[in-house]
Amino acid sequence: MSDFYKKILENNKKWVESSLALDPNYFEDLAIKQTPPLLWIGCSDSRVPANEIVGAKPGDVFVHRNIANMVVHSDMNMLSVLDYAVNVLKVKHVIVCGHYGCGGVQAAMNNQSIGIIDNWIRHIKDVYRLHQTYLDSIENETDRFNSFVEINVKEQVFDLAKTSIVQSAWKNGQDLTLHGWAYGLNSGFVTDLDVNISSDVDLDDVYQLKF
């Protein structure tokens, strides 16, 4: 057994002990029910921990993560998480949180083959294609990269709004707002990208479903 593996098992024991020291019923209460007000759709990057970023405790945030925080309409994993969060947990907020320096977004800016992930990154390339004129006009590569991160988040928020799950919730009068954030790895701060959607009025007519 490696030293690293032993260490993380020991860390678990210490975490349990410190949690119980603060509240002897901590885990008993946590096991009863989860009522998170928030669904977090974030990147799989190990440097972007959902709970820690917003100062939340276990039970406060329902989480889905994938490469480059994508909302792909054929992704049954993401759709299942979204459906459960919206229709069972009744979350009031969904945050799509990207991050500056995202490797998936960076990979979509060039043509280097990485492996099977190329097929996932193609969805990110589609976002670049939609905004290529603007992005190509940004001469500084770092600025272009950062802008692409932000644009990708915004597009994923709109893709969330286009799902039948979200639109059905809105039609039923459910209190549900979608948000887009970008997280700074080198600062710890999030930037609200000012894409906050709580109805389908911001969508083109072709995307507005009739129930």
How many helices? 9
Unreliably modeled segments: none
Structural class: alpha/beta
Largest sheet: 5 strands, mixed
Give the strand content: 5-15%
Distance between the termini: 56 Å
Q: Write the H/E string, N to C.
A: HHEHEHEHHHHHEE
Q: Nearest-angstrom radius of gyration?
A: 19 Å
Query: Taking all residues together, what is the mean pLDDT?
Result: 96
Strands side by side in the biggest sheet: 2-1-3-4-5
Q: What's the shape? A: globular
Number of strands: 5
The helicity comes to 40-55%
In short:
The protein is built from 9 helices and 5 strands, in the order H-H-E-H-E-H-E-H-H-H-H-H-E-E. The protein is globular, with a radius of gyration of 19 Å.
Structural description of this entry:
- With 211 residues, this protein is α/β, with parallel strands linked by helices.
- 45% of the residues lie in helices and 14% in strands.
- It has helices spanning 3-22, 26-32, 50-53, 76-87, 103-107, 118-130, 132-136, 141-162, 164-171; strands at residues 38-43, 61-66, 93-99, 177-183, 190-192.
- It has a five-stranded mixed β-sheet with strand order 2-1-3-4-5.
- The mean pLDDT is 96.
